[in-house]
Each structure stands twice: as structure tokens, then as C-alpha cells.
Specification:
The protein has two domains: 51 residues, no CATH class; 270 residues, no CATH class. The chain is built from twelve helices and five strands. Strands 1-2-3 form a three-stranded antiparallel sheet. Strands 4-5 form a two-stranded antiparallel sheet. Helix 3 runs antiparallel to helix 6 and helix 3 packs antiparallel against helix 11. The N terminus is likely disordered.
Length: 330
């Protein structure tokens, strides 16, 4: 985010001075009380803040957010322990459910491209890794974004010399959600040891790259839906919609077949790319890097392309929404 400038004008008897906040290349008109102005006079010319362009500075801020969140969680240790145990218990029950399924079938999906027991456990581990990162870093912040708008606290975020999207996306870290990450890492290691096929070094290097790509896709969808709170005031229904559509990413795309499944597979792969979030990194890890059909190279390439498009699109939606923001004090 570039420098923030504040200009104030006093129009006749209007008691609310109109401020124009220019952030980056986009201008956001909002009504702020005179108290927000750094100068006591009604006619403020220009006040600038130093911009944060250094990636290292943003990393330091993120570490401060993480440390403060950990201190807050440790202040209420009992609540933190209960959330962690509840989350791990839910994951254990899900794992037990799939163990029961594999007692009745050796494979999920077609025999030529299906998922055996331990291959599917690697798929499940990837789901845990992606979702735990999203929940730990972004879920709480996206959920609270509408409250920032309703209470007017978004005004303070806009005035700070840091990228607004970065601030509202990462200011709180949910440490209890990282228990699922540890659980997923353990399950992944166990699955790889039990599998007949062992991934190569290249596959091991590509896997975290595509896991991060999946995190970026889910984050883009989440922040875009959260940004609509500026237009709608409250968008809990749209936020719930995020949970509904991301449920499709929890299952292998091979199960989406037939007259009903195939259209769903096309929509949630190429239109709303949630199916590539888990399927692509899991496939790269548990199957040999052999191009047997067009999908074997098309999906990894499309996953990277969709990541870039989703990040750019969510950035555009967020700034478009900020252009329509009006302070709660207006």
C-alpha cells in the first residue's frame, strides 16, 4: 500500500467534515468525523504516512500478529485446550469413518485411476493441511470483517500505513486450528510409509507448492465473499456459501461421474476451481509423474493459472468494495 493522504473540506454548516482517503491507486470516499483528522483545523492540506513496501517489514508484522494471538490464546488456556481437543476429536472421527469404508471396498473410484486406502489417507492429509492453514490464518479475520464495517473499526484499518487487505486478513491467528496441521502431517507420513509407491524428490518439492496454491485459491474465495459485506452490510448467507462449495474439495474428483457428477466436476474445476485445491497436490504425491492422458498435465498447469487469476480477482473485488465504503460515523 502506498502513502495515505487525508484531505478535509468544510462545507457550510455540515458538522461532519468530508474526508477523502486515497489508498494506493484507488480512492475511497468516506465520511469521517473531524477527530480522525491529524490536524485540528477544518482545512487539512495533506498528511502522509510512510508506506510499507518491504516484504521483510510485512513478515515482521505477521510475526507480531502471530505472537499477540498466541499470547491471547494462552491467556485463556482452558478454552484453547478445549478447542484443540474438539478439533482433533472431529478429525479422528472422520478418519474412523473412512477406515470403516475401506473395510468394504479396496478402492474409491475407477480401478485405473482410483484411490486405495493409504492413497486416500494421503488425500485426506492434504485436505487437513490446506484447511488448517486457511482456518488458522484467514477464517477468523474474514468472519470478523463484517463487524469491522458495522462498528466503524474499518476506518482505523484504512488509516494505518499498511496494506488494508493484509491487515484485515491476517491480524488474528487461530493457533488451535494448527492442531489439524500437525495431525495432517502425521497422517501423511504414516500414509507414505504404507504406500507401495514412494514419491520422488521432484514430487516432494512440488507438493508444498501446490498446497500453498490451494490455500491461495480458498483464501481468494473467502476474502471476496467477505468483501461483499461492504455492499450488503451483513453477508452471513454468502459466507455460509463458502462452506457449502468448499465441501466439494474434500473428495476425489473421480467420484464425480455420470450425468450428475460430470457437470459438477466441470463447474467446480474450471469455473469455481475448488476441486483442484486438494486433488492436484495429492495426485502429484501419490502417483508417478507419467503423462498418461491430457488431464495429467492440464490440471497442474490450470491449478497455477487459477491461483493467479483468483488472487488477482479477489484483490480487484476487495478494492472495488473499499471504493464503496462509507464510515459508520457518516
Amino acid at each position: 500500500m502506498s502513502n495515505v493522504e487525508i484531505k478535509m473540506t468544510n462545507e457550510g454548516r455540515n458538522q461532519n467534515d468530508e474526508c477523502r482517503i486515497a489508498i494506493g491507486h484507488a480512492s475511497h470516499n468516506c465520511l469521517l468525523p473531524t477527530a480522525y483528522c491529524l490536524l485540528p483545523t477544518a482545512n487539512c492540506q495533506l498528511t502522509t504516512f510512510p508506506a510499507m513496501h518491504n516484504l521483510t517489514a510485512y513478515l515482521r508484522v505477521l510475526l507480531i500478529f502471530a505472537r499477540n494471538s498466541l499470547v491471547r490464546d494462552m491467556t485463556f488456556r482452558a478454552n484453547f485446550i478445549i478447542e484443540t481437543v474438539s478439533s482433533l476429536g472431529w478429525m479422528a472421527m472422520n478418519l474412523g469413518f473412512y477406515v470403516l469404508i475401506f473395510q468394504y471396498t479396496p478402492m474409491i473410484g475407477p480401478a485405473s485411476a482410483g484411490w486405495g486406502k493409504y492413497e486416500f489417507f494421503a488425500f485426506l492429509s492434504t485436505t487437513l493441511l490446506v484447511n488448517s492453514i486457511v482456518q488458522a490464518l484467514f477464517m477468523t479475520n474474514a468472519d470478523e470483517f463484517s463487524e469491522l464495517i458495522r462498528t466503524g473499526n474499518l476506518d482505523f484499518a484504512l488509516l494505518k500505513p499498511i496494506d488494508t487487505q493484509f491487515l484485515v486478513s491476517l491480524q488474528r491467528v487461530d493457533w488451535s486450528s494448527l492442531s489439524n496441521f500437525v495431525f495432517g502431517c502425521g497422517l501423511l507420513a504414516f500414509s507414505l510409509l504404507k504406500m507401495a509407491y514412494h514419491p520422488t524428490l521432484l514430487q516432494a518439492l512440488l507438493y508444498p507448492l501446490y498446497v500453498l496454491a490451494g490455500v491461495a485459491i480458498l483464501y481468494s474465495l473467502m476474502i471476496s465473499l467477505a468483501a461483499t459485506s461492504i455492499w450488503l452490510g451483513r453477508n452471513q448467507t454468502l459466507y455460509d456459501f463458502w462452506f457449502y462449495i468448499t465441501n466439494f474439495s474434500r473428495y476425489p474428483m473421480e467420484i464425480y461421474a455420470g450425468p450428475v457428477g460430470k457437470p459438477l466436476r466441470q463447474v467446480f474445476t474450471f469455473l469455481i476451481p475448488v476441486l483442484v485445491v486438494v486433488n492436484v497436490p495429492a495426485r502429484l504425491l501419490v502417483r508417478p509423474l507419467v503423462l498418461q492422458n491430457r488431464e495429467d498435465w492440464l490440471l497442474p498447469a490450470f491449478a497455477l493459472l487459477s491461483t493467479a487469476v483468483c488472487l488477482a480477482g479477489s484483490r480487484w473485488v476487495f478494492h472495488r468494495a473499499l471504493e464503496s465504503y462509507r464510515s459508520a460515523s457518516s
